[in-house]
Specification:
The chain is mainly beta. It has 2 helices and 12 strands. Helices cover 11% and strands 42% of the residues.
Length: 178
């Protein structure tokens, strides 16, 4: 009987990433073992390690709209020249939840300052996840991070699988493990 209780307790603590088959449900995470097939190469600009995809368009950090779901590829090496992530199939080896927060605080005299990662004032957050990628051909490619739209704490959701696919457009295909 003890073994049955222990088994129930341990399985209750396990984390199930895919809650349902609803691709619009924002809390369904792509399961470990899923694949990301990059169909078009993407360029990482000099002096950065990331490039962003939003609504099927590749762009720099300064160009994307934080109020629309987006994803970004990240590599591990910084370079002074452009770097390319070539077409490839990456296996998702780890999924990690992410929360990014920006706090706006009114200061005397009517100005505003922006403070990151504090827990006071009125804040906007974005929820998402890191998809840690694995490829023997391109070990420098670390992960794909996908975020939902910036919103108040009570209204923020991570991106749904469908929103991730829309952000990637025809650059990449997310193939969920079953």
């Amino acid at each position: 009987m003890r073994w049955v209780l222990l088994m129930l307790l341990l399985t209750g603590c396990s984390q199930s990433y895919l809650v349902s088959s609803d691709l619009d449900y924002p809390y369904n995470l792509p399961p470990v073992g899923s694949q990301l097939m990059l169909k078009r190469s993407v360029t990482i600009q000099p002096g950065t390690t990331r490039t962003f995809l939003q609504q099927g368009t590749s762009m720099a950090l300064s160009e994307f709209d934080r109020y629309v779901p987006n994803c970004n590829f990240e590599i591990s090496n910084l370079a002074d020249s452009p770097q390319k992530i070539e077409t490839d199939t990456f296996v998702i080896k780890k999924v990690q939840r992410v929360m990014e927060q920006v706090v706006y605080q009114q200061i005397p005299g009517g100005g505003n300052i922006t403070v990151s990662y504090e827990d006071y004032g009125s804040s906007l957050i974005t929820l998402g996840y890191h998809l840690w990628l694995d490829s023997a051909r391109q070990p420098d490619v670390m992960r794909l991070t996908c975020r939902g739209a910036f919103n108040d704490r009570w209204g923020a959701d991570p991106p749904s699988v469908r929103e991730v696919r829309e952000a990637l457009g025809d650059y990449a295909e997310l193939i969920l493990a079953i």
